[in-house]
Amino acid sequence: MTNDKHTISRKHLQSRIDKIARSQIAHLPTPLEFCPRLTEELGGPQIWMKRDDCTGLALGGNKTRQLEFILADYIYLAGANITPAGLALGAKALGRKTKVIGITPIHWDEDRSTDIARIASATAERLGLDVTFSPEEIHNEDGYVGERYGVMTPECRQAMKLVAQTEGIILDPVYSSKAMAGLIDHIHCKRIGENETVVFLHTGGTPALFAYAEDLQLAAGEAL
Ligand SMILES: Cc1ncc(COP(=O)(O)O)c(C=O)c1O
User: Fold this and answer.
1) Which amino acid residue places its CA nearest to atom 11 of ligand 1?
2) Which domains can be identified in the chain, with CATH numbers?
3) Average pLDDT in the 89-115 region?
């Protein structure tokens, strides 16, 4: 443990996670890449991308991380919103000031922050960590969904095109392109300062590209 009784060192956190049964199927660690051309194009913060679209197995994606625990016959956590819960927990347990901003692609009937906080607190308990979460600590935005889940917006098409053109990285049409549309908007409206650093988590979803072939042809033809 570190000096602050509520935080833990990275090494200790890893050792607690390592105690949980797990099938090692993902290609880890996934790359953390600096995106110099995207950073320059947007003229804002330094943008890095965590490439969880490169976890291997059937075109990659964040689900492989969850499956490592489920396949080990240990249902780690059920339900959605696992990724933002895990990130919020990691940041708080390690005592980092990093702000975790979730951009949801779904209009939920009820506020997801309560559920994400519950998952993060339950995971902390499972790992024997002295941290809990309230919904107010979770930042989850639904302002970039557009019409509804799974329907591309003009902004997410443009985000996909921009990232493909500048970095040669293909976002997916349902999740990461809407998250990138959110990040671009936050940069444009100066919610994120020029001197800050952002890590964009690319959660995968690449197989969806095939189902969106028509939409993507349209995106390729649209001017930025
Ligand atoms: C590509 C992609 N990204 C993100 C998510 C959301 O994952 P989670 O429920 O872990 O937040 C999903 C869930 O299906 C997904 O397919």
Assistant:
1) 81
2) 4-212 (3.40.50.1100)
3) 92
Residues 6+ away with beta carbon under 8 Å from 24: 68
Contact 207, 59 (CB under 8 A): yes
Stronger pLDDT, 176 or 218, i.e. the higher one: 176
Residue pair 67/218 in contact by the 8 Å Cβ criterion:
no
The structure tokens 């689900």 sit at 63
Contacts 24+ apart (CB under 8 A), 3-10: 4/95, 5/130, 6/95, 6/130, 6/131, 7/92, 7/93, 7/94, 7/95, 8/93, 8/94, 8/129, 9/94, 10/94
Nearest to 149 by CA among 178, 170, 180, 186: 178
Cα 187 to Cα 113: distance, rounded to the nearest angstrom:
23
State which of 70, 83, 139 you would mutate to test the pocket of ligand 1, scoring each by most atoms of that ligand within 8 A of its C-beta: 83
φ, ψ for residue 222, nearest 5 deg: -80, 140
Mean pLDDT of 165-170: 97
